[in-house]
Amino acid sequence: MLSLTIFYIIVAVVYAVLASVLLEGIKRQAVAHAQNRKGPSTFQGFYDFIKLLTKENLTPNVASPFLFSLAPILAFSAG
Predict the structure, then answer these.
(1) How far apart are the C-alpha atoms of 77 and 49, rounded to whole Å?
(2) Helix, strand, coil content of the chain in percent (nearest 5)
(3) Radius of gyration, alpha carbons of the chain
(4) Calpha distance 21→66 (Å, rounded)
(5) Is residue 51 exposed (0-12), middle (13-18) or buried (19+ Cβ within 10 Å)?
(6) Per-residue pLDDT tens for 27-66?
(7) Using the 8-state DSSP alphabet, how is residue 39 labeled?
(8) What single DSSP character describes residue 55?
(9) Per-residue pLDDT tens digits for 56-74
(10) Whole-model pTM?
C-alpha cells in the first residue's frame, strides 16, 4: 500500500512539473499575441530543459569535482 502511495506522489509531482512548463509556454504565447508579435514555441521550456541536460559540465582541473558541484546547491539552499 505504501509503494502505491509513493507511486501516486511521484506521478503527481511529474504531472505538476510538466503542466507548469506547458502553461508557462501558453502564457508566453498569450503575452506575445497581446503585444502583436510572434512569441516562442509553446514547448520552449521543454527545449530549454533538454538543452540544459545536454550541456557539457565544465570543472576546473584544480577544483574538487564534488565541492564544485555542491557549492551552488548549498548557496541556493542556505537562503
Answers:
(1) 21
(2) 70, 0, 30
(3) 19
(4) 30
(5) exposed
(6) 999 999 999 999 899 999 999 989 988 988 788 888 888 9
(7) -
(8) S
(9) 878 888 888 898 888 888 8
(10) 0.65
